[in-house]
Fold this protein.
Amino acid sequence: MSNILSTEIKFLQGVGPKRAELLQKELGIFTFSDLLYFYPYKHIDRSKIYKISEINEDLPYIQIVGKILRFDESGVGRNKRLNAIFSDGSGSVELVWFKGIAWMAKWLKPNVEYLVFGKASRFGSRMSIAHPEMEEYLFGQEKIMGALQPVYSTTEKLKSNRISSKTILGLQQSLQSIIVGKLEETLPPYIIEQHKLMTLPEAMRNIHFPQSVILLRKAEHRLKFEELFYIQLGILLRQSVRQTRVNGHVFSKVGDMFNRFYHEKLPFPLTEAQKRVIREIRKDLGSGKQMNRLLQGDVGSGKTVVALMSMLIAVDNGYQACIMAPTEILAIQHYESIAALLEGLPVSVGLLTGSTRRSERNNLHKSLEAGELNILIGTHALLEDVVKFKNLGLTVIDEQQRFGVLQRAKLWEKNDDPPHILVMTATPIPRTLAMTLYGDLEVSVIDELPPGRKPVKTLHYTDLKRNVVFGKIREQIKAGRQVYVVYPLIKESEKMENLKDLQDGYESIVRAFPPPEYVTVVVHGQMKPEDKDFSMSLFVKGKAHIMVATTVIEVGVNVPNATVMVIESAERFGLSQLHQLRGRVGRGADESYCILMSQVKLSVDSRKRLETMVSTNDGFEIAEVDLKLRGPGDIEGTMQSGTPIELKLASLSTDSQLLQYARGVAKSILTTDPLLSNPQNIKLLQRLNEIAEAKNDLSRIS
Ligand code: ADP
Ligand code: MG
């Protein structure tokens, strides 16, 4: 059967080369299979035909049957319209068109019975339906169509080429008749039975042409389950293979370096959350299995010291460790703070970034291979092949979302036996998303900030209140503090426009805060790296009062003396970005402020985002609101790189229970059959391979 489904779409009756090209370009439908998996986005109930005397504007889309009594065109230019009076004997309704008038006027015939479908609304004393769907009525046709009629999404381009939802419906009908009895099940029978799922052929028939609402829901359930199940199975299988085949380095003891650091060097007591996480990590490191752990902790929660203490366990057991940061500035900051914390202990620490000088680099490489260097801190430069460790035992990756899964894999390959991996992120990830994106990682959470932190005060002002904001900035600078002013980086395509915003902003800041009394630097993504680093370093060293920037500062810099974060056009930022930016202040002992500037008029979602920021500092709460506001579409975008399956029906924001269920099913299968070698599970492996292949089929990228 797979050969039927892989048939090119142009061979389907009613398609042909021209339509095939349109379907490919506009909807990504290349094959029969693509069409089959192109689900309707809704179904409409066409089982009932209303009388015109019954209809009112509170009804949803309705159907009526009747005849055109008369029609005429009126107005000129943009106001041109076509009106028809439509009657079924019980009453009459007006049908109105603003577009396609000439074509409709030619098509409409008196004395023909039409089936009209649309939403009624009231204009003055008369009910009217704008741009109704119409077709000639065949007696009793509503019964043949079935109760629920699928509606497929189309594009303007398709519509102008006369490919409507109806056309696609017709294609789906031909396809269904071709595949009848030939569609092969994609789940093993025992899973279908145990979990009382619809079979694939049944589900495919009912997702397109459901016999009832109940059957439609069952079909959705089966197909959603399958999507989520295979994602989870793929992720968990990877983990299972790793654990079966790969042994982890055993760090059996906590030794001198860890203990001396803890008792002699640590400048503060650890929070309970930090202690708990270190215990979790220690347990993993001693288990004989390779650790893959995600450490989530809000900005400022103290992840660095947890990473450092984990690295010291590696050192105590005769291994090397490394920490990889997404930017040079961040790597340098890690290096400086870790070197300072370790001062006086016989642990050697190196720094390797893109701008490390060649001679120094060679030395680093040598001492690394000789095993003289215990801890290496750096950027992507660590991934280069020339960087070889003697015995890398632990890799820490900071700010995960900046690194792809592939890069993670590359780090595993650094040694014959892969090192333990600790991934740290300051972006709290809702559970469902974490399970999908990082489902092969165990998760630790630091859910407590160090004591004495004053939460950042968040204020929202409209652009009209700029004077108040400037006053606040002046007051803070007078008190010796520093200020960030951030502009949104909207889209690649709007780079220039955005730069103009930034420059205008910079100029108005300089006008309000003139040199030499005030020093303002500017930082944005299109600057040469040297210039950027120079501006950054002026600010980091306290030589500039104000930094005007795009979101390049989103990740990284730690300037405890900065107490004000002004975010311009805050309504254009996503919630997690706003939260990340806010985390740049409030790092010292002083009261800090995050000031959200926006225009006066705001969309409902923008207002909700800004209100959420003002009302809470809790990153997880913010992440949950974010997931709800953004909905599934956007999140799937985030997922693209992370998972092999496109979610067509299931949604991470609304199907979290089913996700958890599907994960449970996948887990229990792997518990008894860790490599899926049991004959009844062969189908599962095959399907995972098919999915991976489909994903790698580059010919589809048009
Ligand atoms: P993040 O989790 O954002 O990486 P850092 O590790 O940079 O946070 O820590 C932020 C600041 O908090 C640092 O200056 C660090 O020294 C300090 N810090 C970390 N843990 C504690 C603690 N238990 N008590 C007091 N200060 C701490
Ligand atoms: Mg950090």
About this structure: DSSP finds 25 helices and 22 strands in the chain. The longest strand covers residues 62-74.
